[in-house]
Amino acid sequence: MRTERGLGENVRTALVYAVLIVIAVAMLIPFLWMLGTAFKSSSQVNAIPIIWLPWPLHFGNIVSAWTSVPFGRFFVNTFVVAIASTIGQIITSVLAGYAFARMRFRGKQVLFLLTLATLMIPFQVILIPTFLIIKHLGLVNTLWALILPNLATGFGVFLLRQFFLQIPTEMEEAATIDGAGRWRIMAQIMVPLARPAVATLSVFTFLWAWNSYLWPLIVLNSPTKMTIQVGLSYFQGAHVGEYNVIMAGSFLSLIPIVILFLITQRQLVAGIVAGAVKG
Amino acid sequence: MVTTQPLVMSGRSRQREGPRANRSQRGAYVLLLPAMVLFAVFTFIPIVWTIVLSFENYNIFADQATAAGFHNYSALLHSPIFYQSLLSTAYYTFGSVPVTVALALFLAVLLNRPGLWGSNIFQTIFFLPYILSSVGASLVWKWMFDTNFGIINAFLGFFGISPVPWLTSPSTAMPALIIMTVWGGVGFAVVLFQAGLRAVPTELTEAASIDGATGGQRFWRITFPLLAPTTLFVLVISIINAAQVFTTVQVMTAGGPLNATNVLVYYVYQVAFQGTFNLSYGAAIAIVLFIIILILTAVMMIGSRRFVYYEGETRDAN
């Protein structure tokens, strides 16, 4: 009886592994196909039957991707936007989150509801007037156009508020008795304690800045100002049909985010569970 | 601790009745100022402005607007492309979301198997496409769906299926986009389901298994009902995200062929920022999109009250 059940369990475990492995391989095929293509010569790309693994590897595509458009510039611009947005969001979210979690003031409920309301309004819906605001500020085709609307989000404020609410009040009380003011309590006790929430927020803001496409597509038009996704799109427009070169460009655009992902997977998962929505 | 907390609180509020109270209040407004100003300028003014624009005829080159009443909305109702884009958005959303959610639930249950080695590695692999699904991944899929040299038709060729003109035929373009979207979205839902499954108390399934319940019975009678809040949340988020798709469409099909994949957000982009720069008409489409999203969210929330069991809730006898 026991061995029979054990055997059944083993078969079932093997089945689970088989299914998981098949699906995992299927999920990875696009990346393998991209890598394979990126290292093919132009004659190998459209060869029939399909060449699955090119040999020798052809590095010319990476070089021509990097040199045909200012890819380096795209990376720098994206990093500038991502870092500036991340710093901005940390500041605005810590300050507002702390006020909502720990202070009493008139209009608190209304302001908090307004903060939650921002989560209900998708960016795609308010895209047009946001463009007009940026245009009236004279910021079209600048990186400020990408940074400014992303300096504060309802998600960030909400995330930090929830985190501050979980921190026991005893520590602040002790600090108050010791004569510390609000600002000192916030800077020296609350912010260090909120590090996990700040990490989650940073990773998400960075990821958003890296992957965002619609907004930069609308406000940027010169290649020297482009961020990576618009740059990649512009690049593929210059190489229509040359899939080996296009895949090399796609590969370049994915490297930084794969590295970020492998380092910060835990924060990403935590953020999604906390209710993050992809921008 | 539970008993001392209210005491401490009341002690503090008594202290606040003096001049300190005002100071701490003003402090709160200072802390809130940056976020609130940014919300006002980049969320609340734009949403009101979107509504205003949709009732105007705005010329971006002259920066002049004239009142237009319901003209933009009536133009929408007479536009075949608008109906096509409503249909495309619905097709895309209801084509991709159920498959994504069902596959994610299935994978999360498999990963939740006790003692499964390497579940972290699988989670990483399933999650990776979600992180990478922007222009780069869309270009990869565009190449995979290539009629003559793409890997998908090569694979189908093994089974003797002749090449499918995926992205160049109106009937297959949307299924292609949906396949790509399931690939990109499943990892996100897996993560949420895994968190939900961890919260299901194991005592219940163990007790049921002692009583002789089969694996299937344990899942459908215990785990699945307890997971309902997570499932609902995943559904709401996925539907809202799908209704706003843009990048994949713009890169892979540019709304074509013959508007077969012209979804609402792409249509907004097309009328407002390409060619005619008809921002007011675009604003009217955006408002329609907003109303659809609000209705979907409300329906889901009302549905959750009626059909979803939350822990700690006492159930009325049916």
TrEMBL record, chain A:
SUPFAM superfamilies xrefs: MetI-like
Subcellular location: Cell membrane
UniProt-listed Pfam families: BPD_transp_1
GO cellular component, one term: plasma membrane
Transmembrane segments annotated in the record for this chain: 14-35, 74-98, 110-134, 146-164, 185-210, 243-263
PROSITE patterns xref list: ABC_TM1 (PS50928)
Membrane topology annotation: Multi-pass membrane protein
Name this polypeptide is given: Sugar ABC transporter permease
Highest taxon above the source species: Bacteria
GO biological process: transmembrane transport
InterPro entries in the record: MetI-like, MetI-like_sf
Naturally occurring in which organism (per UniProt): Sulfobacillus acidophilus
Chief location of this protein within or outside the cell: membrane
Keywords, ordered alphabetically: Cell membrane, Membrane, Transmembrane, Transmembrane helix, Transport
Record has Lipid metabolism as a keyword: no
CDD domains recorded: TM_PBP2
Domain ABC transmembrane type-1 stretches: 75-264
Similarity comment: Belongs to the binding-protein-dependent transport system permease family.
TrEMBL record, chain B:
Residue ranges constituting the ABC transmembrane type-1 domain according to the UniProt record: 86-300
Region feature (Disordered): 1-21
Name the UniProt record assigns to this protein: Sugar ABC transporter permease
The family this protein is said to belong to: Belongs to the binding-protein-dependent transport system permease family.
Domain of life: Bacteria
Any Gene Ontology biological process: transmembrane transport
Lineage: Bacteria, Bacillati, Bacillota, Clostridia, Eubacteriales
Bilayer disposition of the protein: Multi-pass membrane protein
UniProt keyword terms in alphabetical order: Cell membrane, Membrane, Transmembrane, Transmembrane helix, Transport
GO cellular component, one term: plasma membrane
Pfam families per UniProt: BPD_transp_1
Localization per Swiss-Prot or TrEMBL: Cell membrane
Keyword Membrane: yes
Membrane-spanning residues: 29-52, 90-112, 124-144, 150-169, 176-199, 219-239, 251-269, 281-302
Main localization, broad class: membrane
